[in-house]
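Sync notes, pocket subgroup
Present: LS, DG
LS reminded everyone that the earlier model was apo-only. Rerun requested with zinc ion included. Inputs:
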Amino acid sequence: MHEVALSTQLAGVVSRAAGDRRVLSVHLQIGQLRQVVPDTLRYAWSMVTRGTLLAEASLSIDSLPVRLTCPAGHCSEVDGELDLHCPRCGEIAAIVGGEEFTVVDIEVESLSVD
Ligand SMILES: [Zn+2]
């Protein structure tokens, strides 16, 4: 279950960004080539963050499609099974997107001013 390793890495990144503030939510973009199952990631995240300042943080996950560009410059998105042939000209295309694992933003508890 590589979601545990990803969650551990993610917890490190998020807690560095949040400092000693409690984290409410984490917004992620994950490319489909990462083979991440969102529910599994949420479960792993809840295990990894239990008892920490991240324990209440929910994950909001956007799944990004695999994107291809062929030698002729046609761009396409892969829907379903990974096929590297350009749907327009049939040439073998290069993968230009789909491997993302990006923290888009982090919502933290606001500090009281008194
Ligand atoms: Zn093409």
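DG: The mean pLDDT is 94.
LS: The CA atoms of residues 1 and 106 lie 24 Å apart.
Action: DG to write up.
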